[in-house]
Each structure stands twice: as structure tokens, then as C-alpha cells.
Amino acid sequence: MNQQRRNVMRISAILGAAFAAGVLKPADVFAAEWSQKVFDAKSLEAAVKELGGDKFTVSSDVSITGPDIAENGAVVPVSIASKAPNTDFMAVLVEKNPSAMSASFNIPAGTEAAVTTRVKMGATSNVHALVRADGKWLVASKEIKVTLGGCGG
Fold this sequence. Notes:
The structure is a single chain. By secondary structure, this protein is of the alpha+beta class. The chain has two domains: about 1-35, no CATH class; about 35-145, Sandwich (Immunoglobulin-like), CATH 2.60.40.2470. Helices cover about 25% and strands about 35% of the residues. Strands 1, 3, 5, 6, 8 and 9 form a six-stranded mixed β-sheet that branches. It has a three-stranded antiparallel β-sheet with strand order 2-4-7, with no helix packed on it. The longest helix is centred in the N-terminal third of the chain and has 20 residues, at about 1-20. The N and C termini lie far apart (about 35 Å).
């Protein structure tokens, strides 16, 4: 436990020094651009449009994993990954949620394009992994069945 605490302190000190020196900007680490319109989008198509795209294609270079059945819709683990070169943005969208966009990630150049998160799902729905690579929008989808809703259910 003490070793974990020391590691957190070291990482915090290094990041603090990098911010102070101007090597890292908060936008490099945190959400660079917040767009409420993207989170207000009710569908995959609308979210892509709000992100500046006009179309997307289903791609085998994009993968999404999650449980077939989620017993608790409040905490559904989802992982997305992209083998497409030059992936710079990834997002998780839950089709039947009040707001389809659940999470978005800027992927820095030279890093592995893979993320794992937990999303809230109100009901059984298709979950989409949306990826921007070389300026093209790619998607993969998976249906996840929810037995106990997480969005007020």
C-alpha cells in the first residue's frame, strides 16, 4: 500500500513539473475540446456529424468487447481498440441512452489505440466503438443486454 502511495506521489510530482515547465498542457491530458452538441446527439450518425464527419464505415480494424449480459446497467465494462493506423480519437456510444455519447478519448500519436472504461446503460442496447483514423470514421458494434437498468431503471 505504501509503495502505491509513493508511486502516485512521484507521478503527481512529475506531471506537476511538466505542467509548470510548459512541456504538458492540460489539454494534452484532459479533454481537449468539450462539445455539448456531441453529448446531446441522440444517434451514432448525429454524433459523427457533430464531430465533423459526414459518414462512417464498419471496420474489422475496430473492436469492441463487453459482457453479453450486464447484470447491472450502472457499471458496464467496455473495451475498445483500433488497429487502424493514425488513430487519434475513440468514443463509446450507447444507442438507447438519453445521450448516445458515453465517453470520448483523444489518442496521442505513438500510443496504443485501446481504452477500457465503464458506461451506464439504461436498457439493452447496441454499444458502438467509434474511431477516427486518417480522417476517416470507423465503427464496430456489440449488443449488450441489461437486466437491471442503470439510468434510473
